Amino acid sequence: MCRIVAAHREFGTTSCLPTLITDFTDVIERLAAAAADCIQIPGVLGFHLEGPALSKAREGVHLECHIGALTRRDLLAMQSIGRHGRSIVTIAPECVASSIIDELIQMGFRVSAGHTDASAAEVRAAADRGMSGITHLFNAMSQLTSREPGVVGAALDDDRLFAGVNCDGIHVDPVSLRIAARCKGANRLMLITDAMPLIGTDHRQFELQGRRITLQDDRLTAPDGTLAGAHLTMIQAVRNAVALVGLTLTGALTMASRTPATFLGMNLSGTYRTWVSR
């Protein structure tokens, strides 16, 4: 984890939430056992648990065999993680009981919707329970259509929801980025990196849960062609927000710093900090 923080610090990130994607319960327990030590690393604010309560219809690069309902054992391990720092858990709202959202919030997590096929009504209901975020807007979620607004429509419409967006020019078309910026504004839209382990290295491949992930033209893909996170630094995300979205530098920096800090319940007192989710 020290290496993750050090690699991203070179590219403008002062604070981060290392991510654990959907995996076996014993892997969550290993993070729980290490959380108290990891949170002492300068730059680690908390953790991002992406799964396992996701939609198999929107699994992305997550392995279907690991996706499933949160068990009591999962929740016990997550409770230990939630005590340390300011952490996020990504869920598919349609795949959990509303009481689970309550429980996760009581543990100290910010709850975010991602890898989800939820309807707009299901997203609004989760927001009524306290869910406050959307994980990588537009990607791995139900889209805005004429009769069903989906997760995207609900996210753009509901001012209670903060939304992280991948601004690498690969995951989301610039037109969609500009629409999101107009709908959400810099105080609700957050720049994320969704960065994988190759940042700061000359390597072109790595292993993810037994699969070879390959980097080509700044695009990370699994053997079946599925996008596997991003090869993006925060400073490049800021540059892209200016170049692709047409934001002012102040607006882009707000999306990279103050807005995610506000989402996490932090008071920066005017100081800019940047955040990455992996």
Could you list some keywords that capture this structure?
globular, 278 residues, TIM Barrel, disordered C terminus, seven-stranded parallel beta sheet, 10 helices, three-stranded antiparallel beta sheet, alpha/beta
Strand order of the largest sheet: 2-3-4-5-6-7-8
What is the helix fraction of residues, given as a range? 25-40%
In angstroms, what is the radius of gyration?
17 Å
- The number of domains is 1
Q: For this structure, what is the CATH homologous superfamily? A: Metal-dependent hydrolases
Oligomer: single chain
State the end-to-end CA separation: 10 Å
The largest pleated sheet is described as: 7 strands, parallel
Low-confidence parts, pLDDT < 50 over ≥5 residues?
A: 271-278
**Number of continuous helical runs:** 10
Element-level helix/strand string: HEEHEHEHEHEHEHEEEEHHHE
Q: What's the count of strands? A: 12
CATH architecture, by name, is Alpha-Beta Barrel
Strand % is: 15-25%
Protein name: N-acetylglucosamine-6-phosphate deacetylase
GO biological process, one term: N-acetylglucosamine catabolic process
Organism: Bradyrhizobium shewense
Domain Amidohydrolase-related: 10-267
